[in-house]
């Protein structure tokens, strides 16, 4: 724990300087830059500013925020995370991305099941209505199942928005990308697999072969 605290203190110290933050942002933009290229882009003089600029570079390297290879500097894994954090902090509190992450942070396992079932019922609704219109226009069961599925999907999405206290999260739940924005991926994947199998069983079990 002491080692982790020492590492965090070095990172915070490195970030507590405008020039060092600008160096990180430059490397985030350009990928790799040589020592002289960084100085040039920061409008620093190699003659008068080289000494204290070297100190800032060393501070960033000691904090493991940047690395050096093949004569150029680039962001480390921690450095990339630090840049993302700075960008998020710099955004207005009312920005959609902030609200999105806040909503995802509130998700419980119940919300995850809602999100999964909302997407599945939406897809089933579209498929059933499409199948009814294309192949089984005389059999109303597909149309009714499609309408019922869409209604259930809407109810689940509304319930999810109320639970997360944000409507900004809803668009991301029309696909499975939200799984990769959550820390406990194994649980989400298991939830989706189980919910998918259960939904297929519940939807297809009442149907008979002669319905097709």
Characterise this structure.
This protein has 212 residues and is mostly helical. The protein folds into two domains: 2-90, Arc Repressor Mutant, subunit A (Orthogonal Bundle); 96-211. It contains nine helices and three strands; from the N terminus they run H-H-E-H-H-E-E-H-H-H-H-H. It has helices spanning 2-15, 18-30, 35-41, 50-62, 77-90, 96-105, 109-134, 140-164, 185-204, and strands spanning 32-33, 66-69, 72-75. The protein has a three-stranded antiparallel sheet with strand order 1-3-2. The longest helix has 26 residues, at 109-134. It is elongated. The N and C termini lie far apart (63 Å).
> Helical segment tally?
9
Alpha carbon gap, first and last residue: 63 Å
Question: Portion of residues in helices?
Answer: 55-70%
SSE string: HHEHHEEHHHHH
Taking the sheet with the most strands, its summary is: 3 strands, antiparallel
Number of domains: 2
Basic shape: elongated
Radius of gyration: 26 Å
Mean pLDDT: 75
Give a count of the beta strands, DSSP E runs of length 2 or more. Answer: 3
User: Uncertain regions: pLDDT < 50 for 5+ in a row?
Assistant: 208-212
Strand order of the largest sheet: 1-3-2
């Amino acid at each position: 724990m002491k080692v982790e605290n020492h590492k965090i203190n070095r990172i915070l110290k490195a970030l507590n300087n405008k020039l060092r933050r600008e160096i990180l942002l430059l490397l985030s933009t350009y990928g790799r830059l040589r020592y002289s290229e960084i100085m040039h882009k920061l409008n620093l003089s190699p003659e008068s500013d080289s000494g204290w600029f070297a100190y800032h570079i060393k501070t960033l390297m000691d904090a493991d925020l940047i690395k050096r290879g093949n004569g150029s500097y680039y962001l480390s894994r921690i450095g990339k995370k630090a840049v993302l954090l700075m960008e998020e902090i710099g955004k207005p509190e009312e920005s959609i991305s902030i609200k999105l992450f806040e909503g995802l942070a509130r998700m419980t396992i119940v919300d995850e099941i809602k999100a999964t079932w909302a997407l599945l019922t939406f897809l089933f609704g579209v498929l059933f209505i499409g199948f009814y219109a294309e192949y089984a226009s005389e059999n109303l069961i597909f149309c009714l199942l499609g309408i019922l599925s869409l209604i259930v999907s809407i109810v689940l999405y509304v319930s999810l928005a109320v639970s997360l206290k944000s409507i900004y999260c809803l668009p991301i739940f029309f696909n499975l990308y939200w799984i990769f924005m959550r820390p406990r991926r194994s649980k989400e994947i298991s939830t989706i697999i189980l919910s998918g199998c259960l939904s297929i069983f519940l939807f297809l079990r009442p149907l008979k072969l002669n319905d097709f």
